């Protein structure tokens, strides 16, 4: 954090003529840091929020409180920095109720952009170690666990655009300059 503050202060002092975007951990943002980011030219922040359910976040060992995500999005909104959150639908422990907690977080925070990803089960991930406790079976995008299967999770994802207003899902996956595309600026 100290190094980032020094870099931001240098950028402000130099008065660079460009804007920039960043990935950030929601729990790492605070009002001072977000203010410096804005003053240094930040216009877009992408965060891996993953879920609006504390139960699912704890299952992921995300080390993030739901309230931290709410606060991060609100800080970005207050400073005029556009935020995008990525969410995993169907992680072990996910239910329709926990999914709706994610929808509520997006709506309550007024997150401008969100992107849902279907849980992808790989045997070389940490959740594989807990597969028996979660009743996790399958591979890749075809899986089931104690509380859901990949078909149900896909159906929940398809409901998101109807449930979330005014948020927008961008539909762009693995594109580095997503914000430029979303605002219609394209690539230089």
Notes on the protein architecture:
It is a single chain. By secondary structure, the chain is of the alpha/beta class. The protein has eight helices and eight strands; from the N terminus they run αβαβααβαβαβββαβα. It has helices at 2-14, 31-39, 54-60, 66-78, 96-109, 131-134, 150-163, 178-182, and strands at residues 20-24, 42-50, 82-89, 113-118, 137-139, 142-145, 148-149, 168-169. It has a five-stranded parallel β-sheet. Strands 5-6-7 form a three-stranded antiparallel β-sheet. β3, α5 and β4 (113-118) form a beta-alpha-beta unit. Residues 172-176 have low confidence and may be disordered.
Tell me the helix content.
40-55%
Instruction: Count every beta strand, where a strand is a DSSP E run of 2 or more residues.
Output: 8
Binned strand content: 15-25%
Q: How widely separated are the two ends?
A: 31 Å
Order of helices and strands: HEHEHHEHEHEEEHEH
**Uncertain ranges:** 172-176
Structural class determined from secondary elements: alpha/beta
Contiguous helical run count: 8
Q: Specify the overall morphology.
A: elongated
Task: Output mean pLDDT.
Answer: 91
Spatial arrangement of strands, main beta sheet: 1-2-3-4-8
Biggest sheet details: 5 strands, parallel
What Rg is obtained from the alpha carbons, in whole angstroms?
18 Å
Summarize the helices and strands and which ones pair or pack.
Blueprint: H1 2-14, E1 20-24, H2 31-39, E2 42-50, H3 54-60, H4 66-78, E3 82-89, H5 96-109, E4 113-118, H6 131-134, E5 137-139, E6 142-145, E7 148-149, H7 150-163, E8 168-169, H8 178-182
Parallel strand pairs: 1-2, 2-3, 3-4, 4-8
Antiparallel strand pairs: 5-6, 6-7
Helix pairs in contact: 1-2, 4-5
